Amino acid sequence: MFGKTFKNLTTSSLYFTPQMNFGANLKQLKIRMKAIGSIKKITKAMKMVAAAKMKSEVSRLEKGRNFALGSVSRVLENEPYVQKKKSTTTPKTTLLVPFTSDRGLCGSINSSVVRDIKRTVPLNRSSYGIFSIGEKGTIGLTRPFPDLLLQAITGIAIPINFPTAASIAHQIVNQSTSFDNIILIFNRFKNVISQQIIHQEVLNRAAFFNQFKYVTKHEAAEPDLEYSKNYFYELYVASSVYNALLNSSASEQASRMNAMENASKNAGEILNNLTLQYNRARQTKITMELIEIISGASAL
Question: Is residue 83 part of a domain?
């Protein structure tokens, strides 16, 4: 019986050929390659857009920094009716003002600000309040600090201008009446690949008036005390907010450019690996077809 069975075996039947659906595998690889290629095009385009915006924001930052930190400081120092004094009191309550972006896909600059807030606020939460600038920071702070989030501003017009900063500063001033000082937390733009989170202290209205005492230099030319001191305080806060907004905007574009560059590189590496897999699968399919043809020819 066994002899008869072995006589019926052909040469081709001695080779076991696994049945693999190479066509479906190649089709899936082509779909993935097409998707990754589209993503790479998008990230590359976003990188170019971010690079152009970053150049504009850095130029605006360099010009605005001279006004926000230089000109205003000189005005306050040289004003003949202002005499600066050092504060001797320690603030008990603090209003934190974090600056983040409204859009994502810009690396870790927004999450870094949120983490910094979490490290800054101690267990004694009652001495802090949060005035959030930017949608991403507001979303990140809503869950851990629902009781401290007093107000949030999102959808800030781009490019940043001083009237926008003055409007935001006015709302911060109104919210800070029950706090001893204000701390602006934002990413300071150092260069294209480096941004640093800094804490900039801003005095509240009472502390500002206490540190900048008005004295009469000339009997016949005494300024309007109430108008002048309020004007100087609004200018002081608005210039600080303007500087923070400019730095945050430049840092956002630089971080987005770097993030999109890294995403494009990663997409390129994945695309190369998929291309290699596709070529191997295609070669294997051709080899299996040749084996079947040769096996069939040998059986004849």
Answer: yes
